Amino acid sequence: MIQTQKVIHHEHVSGRPYAEVLAAFESATGSVEEGFEKVAANARTPQDFERIFKAREGSSGFMRFLSINHGDWQGYFGTPRKALLSVIGNPLIATTMMRHELAVGLNVPVRLFIYEADDGKTRVTYDLPSTLMSGLENPQVHEAALKLDAKLVALAEHIAGAKAN
């Protein structure tokens, strides 16, 4: 199957400096960057799994799975930049969608990009998960994905101090 779908992209232009936005992001998210499988291996029961990952959540309900500092390696090709791609999510949120359709796994965890643009303003960007999963045409997935959208928007507004425009 080959399918075309419409994805809604959000960009929050912040009046805050990059370092402040990044600090707010790290403060609002937990982390499993040492390895999801390593953390999950400590669970013996579904209750253990939930307890372990609940403890890893940040105040936003998200945790960082992977962060790639695009800004650092850009220095090899000219000017170093301030740019971080982070893969964030929560398996306890993901399961609310994946129980209805395993193919959701293509789009969870989600990606969020924080960078300082050429105009000096910090931007927080992401694609709405519900639109990434719209091709699945599953009402239960869509309903759960809308809740994920709301959490992601709330996180972005919190760290950027601005709504998407």
Automatic annotation (TrEMBL):
This is DUF302 domain-containing protein. InterPro entries: DUF302, TT1751-like_sf. Residues 82-128 form the DUF302 domain. It holds the Pfam family DUF302. It comes from Syncephalis pseudoplumigaleata. Transmembrane segments: none annotated. It comes from the Eukaryota.
